[in-house]
Structure formats: C-alpha cells, structure tokens
Amino acid sequence: VAEIQEQKVDKNPFEPIHCEFEQVKSEKASSTLVASCCSKWYLQAAPGAPGRVMVARYLEPTNEFLLVNQAGMKSAIVPGGQLERWLRDGVLKPLPPVYSILDVVSDIERGLSKVALAQIDARRKAREKAALEVQRLRLAQELAQKAAEAQQRARQQAMEEEALLIAQEAARTAEAEETRRAEAARHRHHEMELAARARVDSLKLGAWLEFREPAPLRMKLAVRMLATQKFIFVDRVGLQRHEISCHELIERLVADRVRILSEGEDFSDALVKVVGKIRDEY
After folding, report:
1. Residue pair 251/192 in contact by the 8 Å Cβ criterion
2. pLDDT tens sequence across 22-35
3. pLDDT tens digits for 130-187?
4. Whole-angstrom Cα distance, residue 115 to residue 78?
5. 8 Å CB contact between 221 and 207
6. How far is 186 from 192, CA to CA, in rounded Å?
7. What is the mean pLDDT of the chain?
8. Using the 8-state DSSP alphabet, how is residue 31 labeled?
9. How many CA atoms lie within 13 A of 10 on its CB side?
10. Residues with Cβ < 8 Å from 262, sequence gap 6 or more?
C-alpha cells in the first residue's frame, strides 16, 4: 500500500526460515504393514468410534491410511505409526476372512462327497459286520444255552445250600433263644431265691405264714433251730406241729406255695413272752 501511494518504505532483508520437513512428516509405514492391512476389515474398539472399518488405501505422500466404514464413507485417516500401535494394542482386531458363495458351494460339495464315500464304506463294513455278527450270534446262542443250563444247576444248588444255611441259622437262633430264655429263667429264679432267703432270714419267732398245700393253713413260727436250719410251726392254739427245713421253705416261697403274712412277733405274743419270763423269775 505504501509503495502504491509512493511513500517511502523501509525494507529489511528477508531471512529465510529453515524447516526440517522430516520432523513434521508422519513416520513412513513399512511395506509389510501396507501389504497386510490394505483391503481388510477390522473391528474398531477406539473410544467414540466403535464398529467395523476397512483399511481402504495407503496414502503414500502423507504416509497415512484411509479407513472407511461399511457404507464406504471415510471413517478416519490414521498415520502409519498409529495404525501399527492400534493393531498391536488391540484397538483394531482383524475380522475372519469372508468366503465367497463359490467357496461355500465347493466346501459343501467336498463335504457331501466325503459323506457319500463314508456311507458307502460304512454299508460295506456293516454287511461284513452283519455276517460276522450272525455267526457270532449262533455261537453265542449255543454258549448261552449251555451257560443257562449250568446256571440253572448252579442256582438250584445255591438254593439248596441257602435253604440248608437258613435252616442251620434258624436252629442256631432257636437254640440261642432257648439258651437265653433258660438263662433268664435261671437268673429270675436265682433272684427270687435270694429274695426268699432274705425274707426267711428276717423271720422272727411269732411270724405267721400261710401254707397253701394240701389246704390253706395259717401257722406261726414257734421254734427256729439255727444249728440244723429248721423251722417248727404251730397253729393258732399251738397243737399242730409242722417242721420244715430252711431250703424247703425257700423253695416253697419261690413256688408261691407259702405266703408270709407277718415277719415278726405281734404285740400279744410279745406280751405273753414277757409274762412268761416274769412268772419264771418270781
């Protein structure tokens, strides 16, 4: 403007600015990365832009990669170094290769062929196996018949042995039960004898007992001979005498043929004894 107005302009010499373009240029991608990434689909896990992307082209002048989405629209332009880091860190995960319909049909055809051949071979083996199975079944039937007869004989013998063992076990059980009952009876009889002996030992002169054989008769203990272990009983008037040993009295008590009515002197008998002693002294 100053020059157009013909005004004086102070001109300073231009000093060129040195710039190293290698510092601002992105790192050049390796040929291996370019060959392995281009035209391949990836699952992008980058924050804010998840989805499927394809590395559409490598922009060699700027060393960048063009990423497009499923609609073919630009998704991002990524430097080569960043793309390599994304692949290493799992931000971009490669998708499995897509098979064409021809490949699928070929695979199905090969699979069906294998199945058909396998079925033919299986049928042949099945026929051979069936023939062998028929022969084996005939032999097995004969062996089974013989085994059944042997098993029947063994079963019959086992049943006879089991019946014998059951009979023997029953006999042992009955014998053991009989022994137990006899032992229990002896034990009860022994206890009854001990109880009867204790009651007989506690009898005092004047004790009343009821003898039930041959006819019920009440008698009183008049004399007790310790040396011979005998007892002498009299009736109410003191006439009839009945002498019995200690062992026999115990047996009668156990057999319930004798019942003890009182085990000691009553008041009247004690009074008679006292009066008799007084008469003897005076």
Report:
1. no
2. 444 556 777 888 88
3. 999 999 999 999 999 999 999 999 999 999 999 999 999 999 999 999 999 999 988 8
4. 49
5. yes
6. 10
7. 82
8. H
9. 1
10. 206, 207, 208
Residue-wise pLDDT tens digits, 234-255: 888 877 778 889 998 889 888 8
Cα 228 to its chain centre, rounded Å, is 74
Residue 217, CA distances (Å) to 163, 210, 243, 261, 267 in order: 58, 6, 14, 12, 22
Tokens of 143: 């062996």
The residues facing 220 across adjacent strands are: 208, 234
- The DSSP symbol for 25 reads S
pLDDT at 264: 65
In this structure, of 1-10, 18-27, 253-262, the range with the lowest mean pLDDT score is: 18-27
Average the pLDDT over each of 46-55, 182-191, 207-216 and give the range with the smallest value.
46-55
Is-contact 212 203, C-beta < 8 A? no
Token pair of 230 as six digits: 């005998």
Residues 6+ apart with CB under 8 A from 69: 51, 52, 53, 54, 75
Q: Residue 81, exposed/middle/buried by CB under 10 A (0-12, 13-18, 19+)?
A: middle
Q: Where residue 62 falls among pLDDT bands split at 50, 70, 90?
A: confident
Q: Which two tokens stand for residue 156?
A: 């019959």
Q: Distances in Å between the alpha carbon of 141 and those of 32, 150, 199?
A: 73, 14, 83
Q: Helices 246-254 and 101-201, interaxial angle, to 10°?
A: 140
